[in-house]
Write a structure and sequence with these properties.
The chain has 7 helices and 14 strands. The chain has about 280 residues and is an alpha+beta fold.
Amino acid sequence: MRIEQKDVDLVIAVARGAGDLARRMVATGQATIREKSSEIDLVTAADVAAEDFIRAALDRLYPGVALWGEESNQPPAQDDFWVVDPIDGTTNFAHNVAYCSVNIALQEGLTTLLAVTYHIGLDCTYYARPGGGAYVRAASGREQPLHTSSTSTLRRALLITGFPYHRAESQDNNGAEFAYFMPRTACVRNLGSAALDLAHVAMGAADGYWEAWLNPWDIGAGALLVREAGGLVTTYAGREWTIRDNNIIASNGDPALHAALLEGVRTARTGLSETRLNVYG
């Protein structure tokens, strides 16, 4: 598919519409919460309604393109498809924490053709196309290009990460990695939306991000944002990240810093007595 600026505008409008719907449901008490896979893995009625809204809107605009959403979770059988997280950061959303987003990526096989991440709390949208750079668009329509930071040492780096839902059942829960990086960096943050975490790396607010046990809808759009802003995105093993991978390291693109992130993850994981992630196979 060929993606042009008009497509960017259309998909941003869809993402903002889904965010508006989620906010209205909160305001009217309709965003009811239930458990999904566990007591801490939540889904709200707004997640489901927002995905339905996005599916209907994209189907009208781009008939015949499949959609792989978090709530329906039906992997596509064709090369062209949308990857959608209707509310990334559902735990934040359910607790009225404004750090949550609508995440939409258009895939052509393993290639991401369009990335759109709408920040529900700040009413701004991050977007990127391959070779076109990455941008943030305010609600007013004003845009600014995104650029990664220039930090080159781990000691000066501000990192972001997250933790899996199985963190109480297994020692392979990102605790070892967190313990490694915390004393060696400026700080490590756990903010609760992988999509926005990657947007913060793209805008230079954070210098790096790592996390595992993720899904394509969590990080597909954000990976393109980081790359188009000048950053580097790999797996824990150092291979170029694709949506087939459930572990990711994103940095500002500085070779020394990215190497330090890779080495830190590898070193931390060597001490695990059992693992839930085959990262070097």
